[in-house]
Amino acid sequence: MGVQIAALVIFVGVFVVGTLRKVHIGVLMFAAAAGVGVWMAGMGIDKVVAGFPIGILVLLVGVTYFFSIAQANGTIDRIIDIAITKVGDRAFFLPLAFFALTVGISAMGSPLAGLVMAPIGMPLAKKYNIDRMLMGIAIGAGLSAGGFAPTSLYGIVTYGTARAAGIDLDPLVLFTVALAANVLLLATAYILFGGFKLLNNRTVDGLGGNVPRFSTNRPTPSHPFEREGNAVRSRQLVTQGVQVLDDPRRTPPAAAEKMNRNQIITVLCMAGLVLTVILMAFLGASPDIGVLCFAFASVLTLCDPKSGKTAVSKIDWSTVLLVGGIITFVGVLQTMGAVALLGKAASGVGTPIIAALVICAIGGLVSAFASTTGMLAALVPLALPLVASGDIAGWAVIAALGVCSSIVDVSPFSTVGATFVATVDEDDRPRITKLLTRWGLSMVVVGPLLLVGALVLPSSF
């Protein structure tokens, strides 16, 4: 038992060191997995490497490549411009519009890509007398919900690792749970931060056809899922990456322009991807979303070779390495029996419901300060002993854990929350920081109670 405990301590230690030193945790995890596997578990290096999740690699590369083409050819910019223009000057619907847009953007492979909406939404919220907390939560909730789409990283990591462990978690069910939970949180924000008072607010200078132009073709951080907890660095990210032009002489918005041929084909491929996934799931098949993305991306790159070439450099190899390194180490822990040891410890907590609450709370608390993707890759396999007895449904525990680990991301100690703070006026930052702290940390308690109560508890009867 001493060797298993030592391996678990090393696993946690790598997380702590990587977070404090702000280095790539995936690199450290892979090296540590090799060392622990060979020297402590007596495994061959080929068996250690065999634990690298090839299926998840195909998913991540295929998804990020497909949607990088859509970004490179300007399709995503067109969709955002059209959607915001349609909302016009109806202040009540602006947070809802930004929620929906952020869901769509975050569903395109990288959840944090939805942060492109923050420097646009926050100034518009001030212009329309919308509480910036309401707009921030709308964008944060959209990011969390979209991140669990079958085509996005949170969803891929969660259902990918669950299925690898033999738990049949339907990607569409996971997305539905995340979407429902975040819609509920958005409705709560509307109540708490004066959203319904906006129904009569249409007197401010409307957007009409003068929606600010912006671009999502921004430089991405080398590790898009690391938590910086630093509003200054987040502000540099968003101000460098998103340009909002207030020049009254600016050209008409892109929404007034017609989509070109490549953009129309891209929209058709995006719709085809979604419909194919839904149809295959309806027919009882298990669609390989990564392969489907490669197929549709092949069509796009043949139609527009320049965008296809540009998109290759935007494949999210950093996250592939992050998830791969963590899951490889978890595979070593499983071989050593360390995960089974955790299962015995979890059974000592009490009933499975209490154990599920504890692990969901741990996931939420740590994720408020650390990598959400890393937490999902680490905790999903470690939560498997909770469902080994069959007293509670595995899919319910994993879905609850995943959503609990993401709804805390509006905390100002994370990249998401720090970006919201950085994109409001300086005199409003202390209030937003305080409220985001309260909201984010309250989710550590509210999330497990809500998700475990709605998903795990019914499955135990």
From TrEMBL:
Signal peptide: none annotated. The keyword Cell membrane does not apply. Residues 1-147 form the Dicarboxylate carrier MatC N-terminal domain. Keywords: Membrane, Transmembrane, Transmembrane helix. InterPro entries: MatC_N. The keyword Nucleotide-binding does not apply. The chain crosses the membrane at residues 23-41, 48-72, 92-121, 133-157, 172-193, 264-297, 317-342, 354-380, 392-424, 436-457. Residues 210-230 are annotated as: Disordered. It comes from the Bacteria. Pfam families: MatC_N (PF07158). This is C4-dicarboxylate ABC transporter.
